[in-house]
Amino acid sequence: MVAGVCLVADAALRTGLDAVYLVLHGAMVSPVHEDVEGELLSRIRELPGATSLPVFGVFDLHANYTPRMAAGANCLVAYRENPHTDGRAMAVHAAELLHRCLNAGKAPRQYWRHARVVWPPTGTGTAAPPMRDLESMRGHWRPGIKLLCSECGGWLLLC
Questions:
Q1: More exposed terminus of the chain, fewer Cβ within 10 Å: N or C?
Q2: Running DSSP on this structure, what letter comes out for residue 127?
Q3: Largest CA distance in the chain
Q4: Which of 101, 102, 104, 97 minimizes the C-alpha distance to 150?
Q5: Contact yes or no for 56/75 (Cβ under 8 A)
Q6: Distance CA 8, CA 10 (A)
Q7: CB burial of residue 28 (10 Å; 0-12, 13-18, 19+)
Q8: In this structure, are residues 24 and 115 in contact, taking their beta carbons and an 8 Å threshold?
């Protein structure tokens, strides 16, 4: 799957692109790659002409968001709701952020921070604690600083 996406990306890059926009799951599994999305983003960045392109997109809020995903993209926006009633709205938001980036000529950076917490799937619903409470704290973490914060409940991956 990763190789197929990269073939398509490589062909598109040869025609001339301004940016890359992806709709990711964030918790894909593979017998070959521990971090499928991180691998995909790394491979896209390694393609000729992709190193400096802005890479934006959306992903599932219970993704296994990794340092490699953060390093491989400029801005990935997580859905805010579980169930994913806001998937379209977050995709539009990410596209608007990409549009702003292209107009300004300056790409943002994203960062990864691990909260050292694992909730069961029943804890990732955004209508009840603990995920609802985490979501409500987002604006209080860095007052006065413009940043987009995506909280990812994650799934515990047992191999």
A1: C
A2: T
A3: 47
A4: 97
A5: yes
A6: 5
A7: middle
A8: no
48: its two tokens:
């000729």
- Residue 9 in contact with residue 20, Cβ under 8 Å? yes
**Residue-level pLDDT, tens digit, the chain, 159 residues:** 677 777 777 788 888 899 999 999 888 888 999 999 999 999 999 999 899 999 999 998 878 888 999 999 999 998 888 888 999 999 999 999 999 999 999 888 887 777 777 777 777 777 888 777 777 766 554 545 455 666 666 544 433
Per-residue 3-state assignment (H helix, E strand, C coil) for 37-106: HHHHHHHHHHCCCCCCCCEEEEECCCCCCCHHHHHHCCEEEECCCCCCCCHHHHHHHHHHHHHHHHHHCC
Instruction: Specify the 3-state DSSP secondary structure of 21.
Output: strand
Would you say the pTM of this structure is higher than 0.85? no
Nearest of 117, 118, 115 to residue 155 by alpha carbon? 118
C-alpha 51/C-alpha 36 separation (Å) is 19
